[in-house]
Amino acid sequence: MIDEVINGRAEGYTCETNIAEFYYKTCEKLGREIAEVRSTSIRHSEILSLAPDERITRMAGILKCFYKGKLSLTDAYILSVAKMLKGTLVTTDRKLAEIKLVQTRLLQIPKE
User: Fold this and answer.
1) Fold assignment, 2-87
2) How far is the C-alpha of 2 from the C-alpha of 9, rounded, in Å?
C-alpha cells in the first residue's frame, strides 16, 4: 500500500494527531531518536498530513460521542479524514477496523 503512494498510484493522507501518536508510541517503544527519524521520514514522504480544521474536528467529536469508549480521539480524527476523503483507512488497529464506517485495510504487524 505504501509503495502505491510512493509510486504515485495512490494518494496517502494522515492527520497531525496521528503523527503525534505515532511519535509517542515509537518513542515509548524504541526511543526518542528513532521517533524523530521515523516521524521526519513520514513528513518528507508522499503522505500528506492534514491539520485538524473545523470540519474534521466536528466529525471527530461526533464519532467520539457515538462510539464512546470504543474509539480514541486520535482514531476519531483519522476516521474522520478517511470518511471525508472517501478513502480507505489503512490501520494496524483491529478495533478501529471493526467499526466499518469506511473501507478499511487491516495491516498485520509481525510480533517481535
Assistant:
1) Rossmann fold (3.40.50)
2) 10
From CA 90, how far away is CA 78, in angstroms rounded? 10
pLDDT one-digit tens code per residue, 35-55: 999 999 999 998 999 999 999
The label of the residue with cell 495512490 reads: 10
Distance CA 88, CA 78 (A): 11
- Look-up of cell digits 508510541: 25
Residue spans of the domains in the chain: they are 2-87
Q: How many CB atoms lie within 10 A of CB 42?
A: 16
What is the pTM for the complete model shown?
0.85
Collapsing DSSP states into helix, strand and coil, what is residue 63? helix
Answer for the pair 47, 14: CB distance below 8 angstroms, yes or no.
yes
Nearest C-alpha neighbor of 17 from the set 83, 78, 85, 90: 78
